[in-house]
Amino acid sequence: MIVSVSVTDLSKAYGKSLALNGVSFRIESGSVYGLIGPNGAGKTTSLAILAGLIKPDSGSAWILGKRVKAGCSELRSKVGFSSPQFPLFDYLTGFEMLSTFGLMHGLPSGQVRERSKDLLELMDLQAAAGQYISHYSQGMRHKLGLACALIHSPDVLLLDEPFLGLDPASNLRLACVLQTAAGKGQTIILSSHNMAIVERLCHRAGILHKGVLKREIVLESKNTPHLSSRLSTEHTAGLEKAFWKTVGSPEMNIPDWI
Questions:
Q1: Contact predicate 250/172, CB 8 Å
Q2: Which of 3, 14, 68, 219 could make a disulfide contact with 61, Cβ separation 3.0–4.6 Å?
Q3: Residues 6 or more apart in contact with residue 207 via CB below 8 angstroms
């Protein structure tokens, strides 16, 4: 397997607080890697360093054979990043925000329009596309941030708490999108407090605690099923299965370009 993300001895301190302490891991192309741990364990810092938004004090990170550093133009359009801790621009509408990201990543204007429409539908934000982000709820902002990370179909997705605050339909849609993306060879790193989500989606998980990667766990091998326009819930269990049986499975088309 080709290694697409490699982290070696990353350390980062904020004043006297050590956020990361010698963290190392490697992730293969087409796999989903989960970062789990208590609040303050270093999950967001790890992802922000990989996104080139925070500079580590020591150690190195490599994505697709390129060393990660701030403003690296070679990686900018190959990586997608979303985190509720990095705010959106309130003075733009949802459609303008998506368009800005698409154009920033070098997509043709026509493709930007089509992909923006696809993602607004996928995230159930069509009705709010023309509203200023300042009027969005926290959940709507979060879904728009995820759409911004997806619009350029990056090779590597870095998602900080991507399922936080999502309604059940959006939760299922996003899970299927990530399964589809990984099935096409994209590499995904996500942080989450939801153990069921991590176990369902991830091939491996790393447990961070007080800035140290304590252990890595290989999860059951994931086989990405073919996904039709109506999502399958036959493999869900317990409460979730009963929920979808009661309310009906949400309809959704995953765009071919994801």
A1: yes
A2: 68
A3: 36, 37, 213, 214, 215, 216, 217
Asked, for residue 229, whether it belongs to a domain, the answer is yes
Q: What is the pLDDT of residues 90-123, one digit of tens each?
A: 899 999 999 999 999 999 999 999 999 999 999 9
Taking the C-alpha atoms of residue 83 and residue 142, their distance in angstroms, rounded to an integer, is 8
Provide the domain limits for residue 128.
29-57+77-247
- State the CB neighbour count (10 A cutoff) for residue 122: 23
Structurally, the chain folds into a number of domains equal to 1
**Interval 54-68: pLDDT, tens:** 999 999 999 999 999
Closest residue by Cα to residue 208 from 29, 4, 72, 18: 18
- C-alpha distances (whole Å) from 103 to each of 91, 112, 147 are 18, 7, 14
Task: Give 193's contacts (C-beta < 8 A, 6+ positions apart).
Answer: 36, 161
CATH of the domain at 33: 3.40.50.300
Cα 112–chain centre separation:
20
Is residue 132, in this structure, part of any structural domain at all? yes
